[in-house]
Amino acid sequence: LMKKNSLVTINITDFKRINRLFGLKIGDATLRKLGNLIKKVLGSFDAMIFNTHLDEYMVLFKGLSDYQEVVTWVNQFLKILEKPLDVLGNLLTLEVKFGIFNIEPDIYPNLTPDITIENADLALKKAKGSRRLSYVVYDMGLGQHFTWEQAMENDLINAMKNHELVMYYQPQVYNNYNRVYGLEALIRWNNPKYINESPVHFIKLAEENNLILEIGRFVIEETFKFAKEVEPYDVRISINISPVQILQSGFVNDIITAFNKYQIKKNAICMEITETFLMESYDLIINKLITLKNLGISIHLDNFGTGYSSLIYLKDLPIDGISINYEFIKNLNTDRYARAIVSKLIALATSLELEVIAEGVEDQKQSKFLQDNGCRIIQGHLISRALPKSQAMKFINDYTFKIPDLNDL
Question: Which of 143, 185, 232, 302 is the most exposed place for a label (fewest CB within 10 A)?
């Protein structure tokens, strides 16, 4: 029987955080500790270990009788990592991800060492991009997926140069009388090839390769310019801020520059950050949020209810409002648990004097439930889809929203 070989890439996902919180000495010691642990868990395997990057190891397994042995080894290793490691007296819980490439000459006839390493890296990249998966085994489909993503990445670079990225604005209105509260700025890619591509996908790709910084500056510039144009209507424009963007050292300065350039009124701009990201990066961004709030920008927690904010945290955060995720809203008519959760979220936010926006409102019945439970602001297809700038201006001008006749419900 032909013996089998397999290459595994091993990465500490939060290595930079360890260096930042505990210092480089602990960082180095953590890496050594992980290396020793790999050796120990390898036991009697015929394997070679390489330290390839700052936060990464590679293991070449040789002479396997079955590829499943590698997966078993990875699971065994993950089990050990569930317990914190003692690194120079500090107890650290490591999150480690694995990319596995089984070296099968029959399936991949023209393998070179470079391609082998690249394939293991692609599997690792896929694992790192997932909250759920700790390891990924490479297959042909994965290669094709990344070829498509590489093409998309190149097109995205050109999209910036060719002005294919445009801003659309989705209205948010008061739930009980005829006034527009604000508009959420949403990016769209004006390219026939990606017409059906969700912005979530290309934004995620942009975050992975730092294109998001350029896109983020474009969004800030366009949105602040628009906020100035709609100033007479007394509406606010909200922007979704990417975690990658806010962690950049120049982020606050970019905002201050735009704020001063367009002489924006207090609370005319609202920044939305996701609840999950805020809780994960609390210590790193809290001062930035306080600075922005003092400048006169309101801060909202987006997708509220899907993360894990402790209610204790909530009252201490420099936030002015929350958006309730459309996942909850879409089930209001059919799911009593969704109704219970939404009414509790509204009550909690209201008791803390936070503004509440319900996203993804599709019909009058949802709108009525939200109104009855004290949610003042709604957004969704019941009101309007996201509109290009000129249509958004017209919407603000023309808007009247009638209270639904309760007999129609």
Answer: 232
